[in-house]
Amino acid sequence: MSNDFNMALFEPEAMLPAQLSWGARCDSDTSGARALMVAILEDAMLCITRGRGRRRARTRRLDAEAETWMRSDSREWLFSFASICDVLGIDADALRVRLLTK
Q1: 34: burial class by Cβ within 10 Å (0-12, 13-18, 19+)?
Q2: What integer best gives the mean pLDDT of the chain?
Q3: With contact defined as beta carbons under 8 Å apart, do 79 and 37 qualify?
Q4: Between these two residues, 68 and 9, which has the higher pLDDT value?
Q5: How far is residue 96 from each of residues 13, 58, 79, 102, measured CA to CA in Å?
Q6: What is the pLDDT of residue 86?
Q7: What is the pTM of this model?
């Protein structure tokens, strides 16, 4: 096999937005890292609300992990709770009070 053939095997294929059949939006509010941040925040909120008063160990563990993540004020990581709130324009303290007050 030639070196060109080997390189072609590992070369990524480019996709155009029009080729995405699931209707992805490409505006600045809902695409890329921002959309991922919204999804992470929604998942954490769901884990917390589902975890309250549940008996299943996995559900309680996910609740505890999400709560620990939300209580952190660290901004060292792009996807930390505080960083996500900053980017999305959400008052982190107000959201914590609303979700974590049992």
Answers
A1: middle
A2: 79
A3: yes
A4: 68
A5: 42, 22, 16, 11
A6: 93
A7: 0.66
